[in-house]
Design goal:
The protein is about 35% helix and about 15% strand. The chain is built from nine helices and ten strands. The termini are far apart. It folds into two domains: about 160 residues, no CATH class; about 60 residues, no CATH class. A hairpin with a 2-residue loop joins strand 6 and strand 7. A three-stranded antiparallel sheet has the order 1-9-8. A three-stranded antiparallel sheet has the order 3-5-4. Bound molecules: iron/sulfur cluster (2 copies). The site of one iron/sulfur cluster (SF4) has 10 residues, from loops.
């Protein structure tokens, strides 16, 4: 698989490709391991995860970053990754773990909702873009594999409401593959260009303020309906931001000036 894509690099070593695109698994409050997996996690957050979590928690994205994340090494040296900070308690529990389960369940991160699968993407040669592959992860403590319920991949995607996450993560994967080409023109890590890109990707509320101050969206030919979406919807703004970064740092024709 092409190393062009950051999600590919996060596949665990003990994950295996899915046979027949189906698997047996059921996670529910009755399993003896319930919530055991919500501790001591190395949980990467992607830009859309942050949008969903900060909206659920009714926090500004800058405040969300301040409280809940740490900046980590990415899959290449030219852009950092973001990881969820576990709590500073004996068990290092996830900050969103409540006594009765996940307190952000409807907005839980991609990795949590995809588990026990892991999704990797690669860019195909043709213009059709991205090709997804699923792997099955097995942890000995996880009893969900012994339950009597089977899913195909499409059933799992539907059951876990993965479509929007997958769509947004595919856009992010393309973006990170672009960052891997070191488009910062010799500025090095954490130079002004990379900081701008960091804001677009991880701090959407600050990017909204930036857009408004610079009248950025208005500078490009974007149809009315899309402009309205960008105004009210953080994921539409993120998509615009990705296109803008490709336009200014990659000289790609992703946007057209007015
Ligand atoms: S976000 Fe929810 S499901 Fe994911 S680790 Fe935290 S508590 Fe568990
Ligand atoms: S069945 Fe697996 S995923 Fe579900 S709570 Fe247990 S360890 Fe976590």
């Amino acid at each position: 698989m092409s190393p062009e894509n950051n999600l590919t690099d996060k596949i665990h070593q003990n994950s295996i490709p899915l046979v027949d695109n189906s698997f047996t698994f059921h996670c529910h409050a009755g399993v003896s391991c319930y919530t055991d997996c919500c501790r001591k996690l190395e949980l990467y957050l992607y830009p859309y995860d942050i949008i969903r979590l900060k909206s659920k928690l009714k926090l500004d994205s800058a405040e969300f970053l301040r409280r809940y994340i740490r900046v980590a090494e990415g899959s290449h040296p030219f852009f950092p990754a973001i990881m969820l900070l576990m709590q500073d308690n004996k068990e290092h529990t996830c900050p969103f773990l409540a006594p009765d389960g996940c307190s952000v369940y409807k907005d839980r991160p991609s990795a949590c909702r995809t588990y026990p699968l892991e999704r990797a993407v690669e860019k195909s040669d043709v213009e059709s873009g991205i090709c997804a592959h699923y792997f099955l992860t097995r942890h000995n403590y996880c009893k969900g594999h012994h339950e009597n319920k089977s899913f195909s991949v499409p059933q799992w995607e539907r059951d876990q409401m993965l479509y929007e996450f997958n769509h947004q993560n595919d856009l992010w994967a393309e973006m990170d593959a672009f960052f891997a080409t070191n488009p910062w023109s010799g500025e090095g890590a954490a130079g002004p260009k990379q900081q701008l890109a960091f804001m677009v990707c991880y701090n959407i509320d600050d990017f909204r303020v930036y857009c408004s101050q610079k009248r950025l969206v208005e500078s490009f030919r974007i149809d009315k309906e899309q402009r309205r979406r960008i105004k009210r919807d953080d994921s539409a703004l993120l998509e615009f931001g990705f296109n803008w970064l490709l336009y200014i740092f990659g000289e790609r024709r992703t946007l057209v000036l007015r």
